[in-house]
Design brief:
InterPro entries: Rer1. It is a multi-pass membrane protein. Belongs to the RER1 family. Its main location: membrane. Pfam families: Rer1. The chain has one domain. The longest helix has 25 residues. The C terminus is likely disordered. It is extended, with a radius of gyration of 22 Å. α2 runs parallel beside α5 and α3 runs antiparallel to α5. It is 70% helix and 0% strand. The chain is mainly α and 139 residues long. The chain contains five helices and no strands.
Length: 139
């Protein structure tokens, strides 16, 4: 009689274990790709080219591509903008200079790191336009 907190054999726990194992593999691949900046950008460029060719060949998915473009533009703006706007901070706090030797002067800290700027569009393209089409057909 299994009354205590032993391992359960129900299907939901098996699915949970499987999804957790897949998430750990995915996170491990992301961790390994962190120092490979050039290869990550090349991979993003190749995936973007394949996506553009697929949209051109199919002659469709323009609305999905438009939404994806707006999202990537928003990511680009966050990538190029500073985390703290210096003009607003200077008005509120006044200009700040390092007061101790341990204070590091950081002239530009991005609001969105380069790694996330590269990974987020890739995660959207992994679903592809067919995912939205299948969801629309099932509704």
């Amino acid at each position: 009689m299994d009354v205590g907190g032993g391992a359960s054999d129900n299907p939901t726990s098996a699915v949970t274990r499987y999804t957790h194992a897949m998430w750990r593999r995915y996170q491990h691949l992301l961790d390994k790709s962190t120092p490979l900046v050039m290869y990550r950008w090349i991979f993003l460029s190749v995936i973007t080219l394949i996506y553009a060719l697929r949209v051109y060949m199919v002659q469709g998915y323009y609305i999905i591509t438009y939404g994806l473009g707006i999202y990537i533009l928003q990511l680009l703006i966050a990538f190029l903008s500073p985390n703290v706007d210096p003009e607003i901070q200077d008005i509120r706090d006044g200009p700040n200079l390092p007061t101790r030797g341990s204070d590091e002067f950081r002239p530009f800290v991005r609001r969105l790191p380069e790694f996330k700027f590269c990974i987020l569009p890739l995660s959207l393209r992994a679903y592809g336009p067919e995912h939205g089409e299948k969801a629309a057909l099932c509704a």
